[in-house]
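Posting this for the archive.
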Amino acid sequence: MVPSRDIAGLLTIMARLRDPDGGCPWDLDQDFASIRHYTIEEAYEVADAIERGDYADLCEELGDLLLQSVFHAQMASERGLFDFGDVVEAITKKLIRRHPHVFGDTDAASAAAVKTTWDAIKAEERLGKAEAKGHDSSILDDVPIGLPALMRAEKLSKRAASVGFDWPEWRETLAKVSEELTEVEAAASAGDPADIRAELGDLLFAVANLSRKLGVEPEAALRDGNQKFARRFAHVEARAKADDVPLADAGLARLDGYWNEIRATDKLKP
């Protein structure tokens, strides 16, 4: 085998890796469930390369993500479910169907008009899928359970909001966050672990909903918050090292003082 720009070469390599006669033992040992977390990881690595602006890395990570599609399609082909050609045909059909303003005779003068058409077509698709499976359609259908929880909370609340199940103003959503926080406090005071878990879940959902109302992706906001925490804590570590104080022996007051230094510096930045 030699490297190739042709997708057929990648399909051939994957089939060879999965060949019981001389293929790779690790690849042969996999199934849909065992590699699904790799698929998710590769998608995150694509997003990471984009955020870092590393386009050489992006090229490599997109290849890793493409491999996941090829891997799943190969396993499906072995079971007679579908093959990579079916995957390509399905997405091309979907793109044509969801872009009637490009491939049909529908007009769309703006991105907002495109989104309205897209959402209407998706709603029709959900109804069709539900009917094919013999159950009633829900507006929450096809919001994947496997999404990161904050992202799924945002999408669930957005779907519900599309039919009017939403607070008119963000201040009312903020009041709901305050209400849920009070309930967390009550559950924590009572000390019931199941209650605490449930109320924290309600609080996090309310915060995700507030983020949506304010036009912020909660997953992105938390990711930024994580990065900020890591950067500030690195300052805490550096200050403790400069003072020759082991972190574990520094005490909260000293560590909090270091933290407030970098926090104050951040606030001075434009």
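Residues 218-242 form the longest helix (25 residues). The radius of gyration is 25 Å.
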